[in-house]
Amino acid sequence: MNDPNPDRHRLHMGIAEAGKLLAVNGRHKEALNRYREALRLAHSAQAPQLFGRHYLQCVLESLEHLSDHVNVQDLAGRAADAAAEAGDTPFHRRDRASLLERVGVAQLKAGLRAEAEATLQQVIELAGPEGQPLSALLLDWMKRGFEISPGRLAEAQRRHAYWAVRPDTVDATRAIDVPVSSREIFHGG
Q1: Residues 6+ apart with CB under 8 A from 129
Q2: How do residues 90-100 score in pLDDT, each as one tens digit?
Q3: Is this model's pTM higher than 0.85 or not?
Q4: CA nearest 166: which of 75, 65, 66, 79?
Q5: Which of UniProt's keywords are assigned here (predicted)?
Q6: CA-wise closest residue to 59 among 47, 75, 43
Q7: Which of the residues 22, 68, 162, 174 has an alpha carbon 20 to 30 A from that of 108?
Q8: Please, are residues 59 and 35 in contact by the beta-carbon 8 Å criterion?
Q9: Confidence grade of residue 187 (pLDDT, cut at 50, 70, 90)
Q10: How far is Cα 120 from Cα 97, in angstroms, rounded to an integer?
């Protein structure tokens, strides 16, 4: 199976990587534009779903860094519902749990503690405490009545490698900025 355009995946991957570079430098609004373009290109290149899911996680992280908790809850919630409809395999359950963890954290940050507790309980039911250790920790703290300050939450997120986009996971050599319309690159014109 020869791919007639082997660079088609390099382009969306490179644009996403450029978005990650922006994100690690705190430029999340610009990163969102790159992720949107990478998603569009991945879709038009018929890239495996794995790319779209990774780019979605990048989008959710930038939205969370922008304190856009409503959109994180909405987007991650819809993606979790889609994962549930796609199947009930261990992969689908882990995927759904990961997305629901984002919902629960966004609810917690938005001050919706009861909703966050219910969502994180769903996460544990789907993935188990070993599968989503941050959810298990946050749920334990909530059940014990602990106050979860923004600093305490941020430290727990860091300790449990919650963020996929970090300086140690970004490869600047793979980043491709969009100097011309990617439609021109893709379609010759």
Answers
A1: 135, 136
A2: 888 999 999 99
A3: yes
A4: 65
A5: Isomerase
A6: 75
A7: 22
A8: yes
A9: very low
A10: 9
